[in-house]
Amino acid sequence: MEKKFICIVCPMGCELTAETDKQGNLTAVAGNRCKRGESYAEQECKTPMRMLTSTVRIEKALYQRLPVITSASIPKDMIFQVMSEIDRVKIEAPVELRQIIIKNVCGLSADIIASRSMAEVHQ
Amino acid sequence: MIDITIIGAGVMGAAVAYYLSRYNCQVVVLEKENDVAEGTSIANSGIVHSGHDPKPGTLKAKFNVEGNRMYPDLCAHLHVLFKQTGAFVVAVNEEEKQILQVLKEQALDRQIPCQEMDGEAARQIEPNLSDDVIWALSLPTTGVVDPWEITLGMMEEAVLNGCELRLNEKVVAITERPDFYEVTSENNGQISKLQTRYLINCTGVYGDDVYRLLEPELDFFITPRKGQYFVLDNTIAPLVGRPIYPVPSTVGKGILAIPSIHENVLLGPDSEEIKDKENVDTDRARLAFIRQALTKTVKNIPFDKIIRSFAGLRPTPSTGDFIIREEEKHPRFIQVSGIESPGLTAAPAIGKYIADEIIAAATKYGLKTNYQNRRKPLRLAGLSIDEKNKYVQADARFGRIICRCESVSEGEIIDCIHRPVGARTVKAVKKRARPGAGRCQGGFCEPRVVEILARELGISPMEVMFDSQRSPIFVGETKQAKGE
Amino acid sequence: MNTVELVIIGGGSAGMAAACGAYEAGVRDILILERDKELGGILLQCIHNGFGLHYYKEELSGPEYAERWEKKIEEYGIAYRLDTMVLDITADKVITYTNTVEGYTKVRAKAIVLAMGCRERTRGAIHIPGFRPAGVWTAGTAQRYLNMEGYLVGRRIFILGSGDIGLIMARRMTLEGAEVLGVAEIMPYSNGLPRNIQQCLRDFEIPLYLSHTVTNVFGKDRVSGIEISQVNQKFEPIAGTEKRFDCDTLLLSVGLIPETQLGQNAGVLLSPKTKGALVNDINETETEGIFSCGNVLHVHDVVDFVSEEGLHTGKNAAAYLQNKLMRAEEANVSAGAGIGYVLPQRVRKTLAEAVTFSFRVTDVKKNAELLVKVDGKVVKSVKKRQMIPAEMERITLKAEELNDLQSELVLEIRED
Could you report the predicted ipTM of this complex, rounded to two decimals? Predict the structure, then answer.
């Protein structure tokens, strides 16, 4: 089977054409300009993975939301489940950059981590 | 029993309230919208016309000429910005030049200063006049004003002197009793009634509809006449230094280039009779027409500096003239309808006429002895650094700029929220202190204005409205986890 | 009046990099003036990842990318003022700024770097007709509300413009529970990075309407719907192609404009193409000692290049202050066939160093060749599989490739 998609590994945005066998395994890929495109295509055919960024509620900080990011990519079809975990969290400043906010979220072997530090602000 | 109730808080209602507030009488203003100057007055050219244009013998001519003469002192008294820019009416052919002669005679008859000059001389003064302009009539007493500011200034001083402004009160019924009127109004489904001796109808495009609540047989009707405009960014060298009128036609004064009091330039308005009194949308074809029509009188128009387009409705009366009278059939019901152009200019003269010559003459209300003058709005633009720093020393928030396009400080925004007739919405703040009126159109300052409004009014940002009570900025907060 | 060697207007990615560049070249008396509550600029609201691939060889979120530079500023001990707005700059480098601590203050600089970034084009600038209710925002404003303040501006969203901010916001609004009904783009191709089409639209099955624009906005109080129409080759709406969407919000991602007002006060001359300053190869404007970099110079799509441009500018501002700058006659650089703009617009002759040129193509170019002509002679040609206007391209010329430059360097595209 032939699948077409855009590589998201870097801003180049190569348009990939992937050939897969009946089990969904990659047999050939065209359109990539680097090695990473090939492994991306392989993963995309098997289980598409995405980094997820969002925010969590934070108190005693300059703003009411702290940006967070997954420490590793997670399966695309788990995004909304992870989002509902993220929505539940409420933390307090101070927070360090890359501090773990949710460990091993949804058992996906990825953490939700702070994507910036936020100092405590006394109102 | 209330002495006088004014329906409508546009420039007309504000002017009537202002001149009445000098007298010892109780005045209430009912406004259906969430702020003053929300109807015809919100989308106005802002020109204080000289009075050369209206037909002889009309109320338009009388009150325009009088209003123009009142503006300089009125604005000085209210601390409202006003600039006597003068104006040119320009002709591009012999036929139009003949019409300029008529206008000139009309102006001279009314003791309006004016001067003729040829195209070359006019271009010496206004270099961006079209090369086709062959003749110009200069009208030095023409000026520009901010229609929001003058409305607010008059209403604020009225409120300071005891007038009561009730916002979001839509009049739904008027009943005539032997000595008074009973007025029913609705605010978000809540019905209120008041009794008033005088009732004054200043409801713009709704003038006929409101009167119909009392009188089934109307001898006039109001047609909304839409006008669309472009706004040009304020640049180092403005396109024009004074309003440029084409020679007038049957549908009005034509399409103008107008330097606003805030150093933007307005291009417009066109003229289109419509049916829907709420329809203030703009459309592509009309805006294209404005661009094209303007090139007749003005050149080098920087169309790439357009920051906004908008439309407003003029209340055009079927009678062709302002309708200003105490209704014979309904004593003490005062009609102020059909106040289309030159309504902004005429408003103070009409307001004074109603207060002094209709109401005070009949009631013998005495003048107030403890009349309060409006405090000057805090405005830092144009002050020296030392003067600005005096404000900062008093309140550090005058040192924090919220709107970079128009250089508006937090202190000025707080002032406009806490004054009489204070701002409650993002749009109301824009109308008073100008954040959001510049080239970024609020992209940068709106989040800060919302924050300031919420803090100063003691409400949640979720409750801050853009303009009307039905115009929330936010629909929710993020992270409201299900089941919480 | 105090004097500061180098004043940098703006503490975003360009300003922070310029400060670091100048510091690393030996300047110690530096002052950054930043209008927001923190250093970092627009990166702080760009919480998505994808930053730093070029510069750090790793993928960072906007806030983390900003934090790395902020740490450097702290480490170097470079002075900055937050919550500070610059109101005016004169040609003789007197800067007026204000904040709540110092009030309205003037400072004289020996050199200035303009790094104010850009602003978003608004509804007014593109004349979208219709009503003017609440519910129309630029994507960046909605992004700040959403990512920093935690407010949702709408539940049913339509987006005009396929610029990166618009695409990123389509995904963010979807993740936070809103429904994004579609994205319309007036051009026949997307204006955002291709990977954002994939991961922001296709991943969530959000339709993209190419060659479409918004032709009406409905709703008197709050947006109740919008209408889009297909456009012809002159970008005029085609009657009969109208589609209506019931939505409560219209977000605009219709372009960015360098925020050059302050520079204009100082007499800095602008390019009609980039809308930013005209500069030479060290990013010095036509006003001596006033430099410009980042999005106020020309709008970038990758922050890493902003940082590089900032470092380069800061380093050269330092050389200017230290009288180490090699002055030479300057040749013109111009955009030939197929090139929308090229920067810098001037380059010093007899250079001892390489120069990186930034440019954008006018439209999508496939299998085309980029030619560099020095005084009419091709000195370099590079084959490119694809170039699109949404992506800023760069080409670096070595000093020796510029040796013969006398009057003009031209970049052009040769298509088969």
Answer: 0.95
